[in-house]
Design a protein that fits this description.
The protein is mainly α. It folds into two domains: about 1-145, no CATH class; about 150-255. It has helices spanning about 1-10, 15-20, 35-45, 50-70, 75-85, 95-105, 115-120, 125, 130-145, 150-155, 165-175, 185-205, 210-230, 240-250. It is flat. The two termini are about 20 Å apart.
Amino acid sequence: MMMQAMRRAVVGFGLCAALIASPLFAQDDAAKPSAEDTAEMLEKALKSKDAEKAKAAISELIGSYIDAIEAEDEKAQSTVIEALGKALSFRDGDGTVISAAALGLGGMGEDAAKPLSAAVKDRRLRKEESLKPAYLNCIRALGQTRSLRDIKTLGDLLNDKDFDVIAAAAEALGNYNGEDMKQTIRKKVAEDLIKALDSAYNAAEADPRNTTLQRKYEIVGPPLMSSLQKVTGASVGAAPDWRKWFNDNKKKRWS
């Protein structure tokens, strides 16, 4: 069951179509290169700045990871994660290589959080406007790993000045949900989300003519409330109702 769940998690990302379409992936099992060989192919593509070959190798590596999960081959799993982590440093102009690697790593659990966390904290990546979509994907992918060590990193981003970064962090924090996640963690995440929601909503309400504040709430409000629903398991109406709900239910057990 665990292997099947991991297979669904990895393939469930946006790379699924690219993975299936990849010429490398369309080989029979006997002809497939090993994770080590494909990692070397990716490294060569990165060094030669060949984005298309890099993305093809990333797709193949994701397939190798699924195979490694089923075979319980921890060495191959580590090889894939390390190789994809290196791809996060690639500067290909539009960031599609970074996004491909990030979305793959997002489905590989806490072991894949370290390179994603480093990318999220990378100031050079953050500053390059053309790579902003890739940076946002790194934030989302970090949340998908459900790394407990990185909750604070994501929570701090809720106070960012960039509305898109706040929205991505809110989306990422929505992954800390379900009965398998500790109640204390879910409640801490929910409180952080509610603080960000209160701030954006109250500012917009206090100054309805301020187009910047209105735009901020329009961008961050929906992902904040969506993630609150996922984390708490509750359906609450408007933004101001979430604070009351939390105060009434923070000492209760959430489903």
